[in-house]
Amino acid sequence: MKKIAILPTLLTLGNAVSGFAAIAVASKIGQSDVTVDSDYLFSLSGWLIIAAMVFDALDGYVARLSKTASSFGMQLDSLCDAISFGIAPAFLVLRLGPGWAPVPRLHQALAIIAALYLVCTILRLARFNVESAADSGGSKRFRGLPSPGAAGCLASLAILRGELAQRWPSFNPEVLQTTLEVLVPLGALAVAMLMVSRVPYPHVTKQILRGRRPFRHLVQVVVVVFIIVLIRDLALVLLFWVYALGIPLRYLWVRSLRPNAATMPPGFDDCPQ
User: Fold this and answer.
1) How far apart are CA 147 and CA 125, in angstroms?
2) What is the pTM of this model?
């Protein structure tokens, strides 16, 4: 504790600040004294959670690159993640789901789901810290959906809510709002359960940034980034939700075909269950 790596610590704190800013922005949604359009606030809150994800990816990468990774950094990272990927998305769920006025019971159920999401995020982070301390080999896979991935799923829906009507004026915003009021609670419940599951998820950042890759790998990354920029509202929803739901569906399909773990294909047997 006498010496602290400055740059990784600042990046980690940037993660927490982005999460706090997302909460502050989401708290303004629907208030009568706010002149800013609610769609803009939804979009901005979602993008602030995405910014927290960028800070979260960079702090670990910079710490490993500068060989300044420490137990203090890991604990600080978890505390910041609890804000950005636990509290901020849970609060955003309350704004995206059904309000209090039409049917109070639905909003109460939504609040329970949001609280459950927050609890599962904290449990996921605590379990990750314990398993990371015990595993010195640096596993390439996560046990359960990573909390940034779960937060990204909900943030992408907020961005979709805020930007789809602006980018596609012919689309009826009321239809989107009604659809999200149904999908957001179900989606939040699903990713909450996946976070505390034992389904192995690949470490996307490590696979993209670490080691040497062929030239076509760089081309693929550039194409994906270009698509995200071009249709960012739809692309983010597809990327996050395919990652969150597609991997466990494939996992269950493989397990049903090959119940014996020893015969499972590479990639699923390297993560202890």
Assistant:
1) 8
2) 0.85
**Using H for helix, E for strand and C for coil, what is the string for 154-177?**
HHHHHHHHHHHHHHCCCCCHHHHH
Q: Are 233 and 155 in contact (CB under 8 A)?
A: no
**Which pLDDT band, with edges at 50, 70 and 90, does 208 fall under?**
low
Q: Which one-letter DSSP state was computed for residue 32?
A: T
The answer to whether 39 touches 145, Cβ cutoff 8 Å, is no
Distances (CA, A) of 44 to 73, 112, 156, 187: 28, 25, 11, 20
CA 243 to chain centre: 10
| Cα–Cα dist 78/131, whole Å | 13
**Residue keyed to tokens 């062929």:** 214
Report all structural domains of the chain as residue ranges with CATH numbers, in order of start: 6-263 (1.20.120.1760)
Sign of CA dihedral 153, 191, 19, 25: positive
The residues facing 200 across adjacent strands are: 143
Mean pLDDT, rounded, for 263-271: 44
What one-character DSSP code corresponds to residue 265?
P
Q: For residue 39, what is the enclosing H or E element?
A: helix 38-65
pLDDT tens per residue, range 24-65:
999 998 887 777 888 889 999 999 999 999 999 898 888 878
CB 126 within 8 A of CB 132: no
CB-based contact 45:92 (threshold 8 Å): yes
Q: Note the pLDDT tens digit of each residue in 157-185.
A: 999 988 876 776 667 778 888 888 899 99
How many Å apart are CA 86 and CA 83, to the nearest integer? 5
CA atoms of 34 and 117, how far apart (whole Å):
28
Helix/strand/coil for 108: helix
